[in-house]
Design a protein that fits this description.
Elements: H1 2-22, H2 26-35, H3 140-154, H4 157-170, H5 175-187, H6 191-207, H7 211-232, H8 244-254
Helix pairs in contact: 3-4, 3-8, 4-5, 5-6, 5-7, 5-8, 6-7
């Protein structure tokens, strides 16, 4: 019985210490909201949803797992800040200084990063889907390509097209992206663009000695020609429910691995 009691006390003590280590520092949160001056502050797990932190000084602050969703952080100083696994969904980071910041695993979906300084920032595993601004980070191409496929699976062809365009701007020789973009264009009734992309994909796959890619390109060309013919005859063309991106999805995803 005594052993169980001691074990329970130890467990509760460890839990209490761990909880304290991961709890937000209320005084630092108050300081930040009142003055916008909180360099090197302890703000891990802080709840700062919709907070107005425009121009705030958060240099080297610990914002690990902080919730900054929809926060106003335009022009904020976040140099060397720890933002690992932080939620910055929809946050306004326009012109923010994030040089050397650790954003590994951060949620930056739909965040405004226009003009943000990201030199030396760690964006490994960060989710930047829908983020605004010119962003360069390891794995960016793979993310854009995968997001394009996801939007295509959902039937959001304009969104898929936009992501394919961004991916191809980074890797203009990546044949599968032309194949995917061609399928998206076909669903949007842009048959000329779809055929041009499918034929370019076939050329690149041929040059890369990829028979399965060439075959997929030829299949897409035939499918687009059928849709184009139906449209000319007054029938349903792209967006008819066939979803060429869904048909090609499995194959296109394989090219990432």
């Amino acid at each position: 019985m005594k052993e169980k009691t001691v074990a329970t006390i130890i467990a509760l003590t460890v839990w209490g210490v761990a909880s304290a280590a991961f709890a937000e520092n209320i005084e630092h949160v108050r300081q930040l909201l009142a003055t916008k001056q909180c360099p090197k502050c302890e703000l891990s797990n802080a709840g700062l949803v919709l907070a107005n932190l425009e121009g705030a000084n958060l240099n080297s602050a610990n914002l690990n797992r902080a919730n900054l969703s929809r926060a106003q952080l335009a022009g904020a100083d976040l140099k060397q800040a720890n933002l690992t696994s932080a939620s910055l969904f929809g946050a306004n980071l326009e012109g923010a200084d994030l040089r050397g910041a650790n954003l590994a695993g951060a949620d930056l979906r739909e965040a405004n990063l226009a003009g943000a300084k990201l030199e030396g920032a760690n964006l490994a595993g960060a989710n930047l889907k829908g983020a605004i601004g010119k962003i360069s980070y390891p794995g960016q191409f793979d993310d854009l390509y995968q997001w394009a496929l996801e939007e295509g699976q959902r039937g959001n062809y304009p969104g898929a097209l936009a992501y394919f365009n961004q991916a191809l701007a980074l890797q203009p020789q990546f044949a599968p992206a032309y194949l995917g973009r061609g399928a998206a264009r076909a669903e949007l009734n842009d048959y000329r663009g779809a055929l041009a992309d499918a034929k370019l994909a076939a050329e690149l796959f041929t040059a890369q000695n990829n028979p399965s890619g060439v075959q997929a390109s030829e299949t897409l060309i035939k499918a687009v020609e059928i849709q184009q013919k139906r449209a000319r005859e007054g029938g349903r063309g792209g967006g008819s429910g066939s979803n060429l991106l869904q048909i090609l999805g499995g194959l296109l995803l394989q090219f990432l691995f």
